[in-house]
Specification:
The chain has about 160 residues and is an alpha+beta fold. It has helices spanning about 5-20, 25-40, 45-55, 55-65, 85-90, 95-105, 145-155; strands at about 80-85, 115-120, 135, 140.
């Protein structure tokens, strides 16, 4: 299926391009706009971004596969990222991760049957002083324990 940016997102991209010395330099924020629109970065999305920025598709693929913030498959409406790097791990991140995995009945990289939640174990998210933490889409939740993580999940369930 062909991918095209919406008129609104095309305007966002025009503004983004003004901030960079070359179109190619804007690949990361343009990919982010594409992911917000499409929900994930498909092959068609990469082709469109490459065409728009005048760069080879394999270079766009290199960016998408290098950075974990770009999803190469459809994810849940609420994407839960649990940091398990050293500070978070030492303060109970694996208890939280295992709890979420069991509660939602999904594995790392999995999506719930209703496509509401997806789960990903991630490396450092820069919250070492307030560990452990999770991100739900773009929102960070810090100083967590299993009970607080459960409350967060329930609050997102109630938004549907």
């Amino acid at each position: 299926m062909e991918f095209k940016f919406t008129e609104e997102n095309s305007k966002k991209i025009e503004d983004i391009l003004k901030r960079y010395p070359t179109k190619k330099a804007a690949v990361m924020p343009v990919l982010y706009v594409a992911q917000e629109q499409n929900g994930w970065i498909s092959g068609e999305v990469m082709k469109e971004v490459a065409s728009l920025l005048g760069m080879p598709s394999d270079e766009v693929l290199g960016v998408v596969t290098f950075y974990t913030m770009y999803h190469q498959k459809p994810m849940g409406k609420y994407h839960l990222q649990v940091c398990t790097n050293v500070s978070c791990m030492l303060r109970g991140a694996y208890k939280i991760y295992d709890y979420i995995k069991d509660k939602l009945n999904i594995a790392n990289g999995g999506v719930t049957e209703d496509a509401v939640f997806s789960l990903e174990e991630v490396e450092c998210m820069g919250s070492c002083g307030t560990a452990p933490m999770i991100a739900v889409n773009e929102d960070f939740f810090e100083n967590l324990d299993v009970e607080k993580a459960d409350q967060i999940i329930e609050s997102f369930k109630n938004r549907n």
